[in-house]
Amino acid sequence: MHNKPQLFHPQAEAALADPELRANFRGAMDYLRDKRQSAFDDPHEESAIRDRAEVIRQRCLSKLPTLLEQLETKCIANGIRVHWAENAEQANALFADIIQSHGGTMAVKGKSMVSEEIELNHAMKKEGIDCLESDMGEYIIQLDNETPSHIIMPAIHKNKEQVADIFNEHVPGFKHTLDVDFLIQTGRNVLREKFRTADIGISGVNFAVAETGTLCLVENEGNGRMCTTVPDVHIAITGIEKVVEFLADVPPLYSALTRSATGQTITTYFNMISGPRKSDELDGPQEVHLVLLDNGRSQAFADEEMRKTLQCIRCGACMNHCPVYTRVGGHAYGTVYPGPIGQIISPHLIGLEATQDLPTASSLCGACGEVCPVRIPIPEMLLRLRREAKQEPRPDVLELRGQGAAKNNLEAFAWRSFGLFASHPSLYKMSSWFATRLRGFIPRKLGPWTRCRTAPKPAANTLRELMAKRNK
Description:
By secondary structure, the chain is of the alpha/beta class. It contains 23 helices and ten strands. It has a six-stranded parallel beta sheet with strand order 1-10-7-4-2-3, with helices on both faces. The chain is globular. The N and C termini lie far apart (67 Å).
C-alpha cells in the first residue's frame, strides 16, 4: 500500500471510517503518551534536558558544512568509505554499485527511515537484490506490502490478530496463535537464518560524530547490531543533518530521544561504529560504507527559519500527541514522515506541489511544539508553509520548492478585498450595514448561526473617539 500526499483528504476520510484502525491507534497513542509522561515526571528536569538538546542541535546545524567535512575526514581515517548523494536516485545507485561489486543478492536491513525515504527496497529489487527488514515492526509491514505508519513503531497500526493473519499467510509452517511472545519468536526465527546468509548489512544512523568519525545507532531489538556486524559489508545511510560536533553531544541527545520516543531512560542497545574489523578482531564487517544524503535538506538549511526543521532527532513524540495523527494514522499523509514533523519536512523533500494540503492538516493546538525534545516551533513553521503554498516567490524571501502551488486567484482576491475593507473603518461600517440587511440570501443551513450573531464593530479611529464612547 503506497498512498500519496496529494490525496490526503480522501485517505484521511478512509482512515476515519475504519474503526479497527482508530482503536489500534487510540490504544497505542495513550500508551506512548503515558510512558513519556512517566519518563519526564520532573518538569524541571524535562525543561533542562530539552534546553540542552536544543542548544546542541542548533550549534551543530550552525556549523553543518564544516562538520560534514570533518566527519568525512575522520571516517576515512577510520577506514569508513564515505559517499555523497544529492537525491534518492544517486543514493540508490551508490547502494547498487556497492552491493553488486561484492556479488551480493541479499541484504538484511536495520530500521532506517532514510532508506524508506529513498525507497531503497524497491530500487534494489529492480537490480535483483532482496532487502529484508529485520526490525520486527518493519518485517511485519514488509510482509503485508505496506509502509511504516510511525517513525519509531512502524507497525503500530496493527493489532495481534492482524499480525497473526499476516504470518499465517506469509510464513511457512506457522501455526495460528494470538500469543504475542510466540508471534515475536516466529519472526526472530526467520530473521536469525537471514542474518547468517546475508551478503550485506544496511542500517541507519542516529548520530554521526564529527570529532571521532563514529556512527551511533539506537535500538531495542538487537537486529541493528546483527546487521552491522554479521555480514561482511555494512552500508549506513543518514541525512546530512544527523552530524553532531562532539562525542559529548551524544548523551544529552540520547537521553532526550529515548525518553521522548518510548519513555525509556536508555534503550537496550546503543551501538558505536568507528570502522571495519581490524586484523586482530574476531567479528565485524570487512568494509563499512557511509552514504550522506541531502535530498532537499540543503533547502531547509538555507532558510534560517526552516533550518529548525533539521533539529529533529526522530523521536515521534509530536505524532503521539497530535490530535490529527492519532485519529487518521500515518498512512493518510502519504509521506515517509507523517504527523507534524512530516508536515514540515516533507515539503523540502518532495516539494510543496505534492504536499500543499499537509500543513493545513493541523489544529494548531501546539501540542507538538510543547513535547518536542529539541523545541522545534512546529506550529509557527506550519503557518509559514501555509503562506508559502499560497504565495508566489518573493525577492526578499528564499524560494521554497513548489512555492505558490496552492495559490487560488479567487481566494487571493477575496482576502485582498477583506484587507481593504478591514483597514478602512468607513468601508467596514458600510459592508457591515449591507451584510446585516442581506442576511436573507445566506443559505438556510447557516441561518441559525447568523441570526444569533452580529458583525463585530470597527475599532475606534482615535483615542478621542474611544474616550467619547466610554463617557456615554
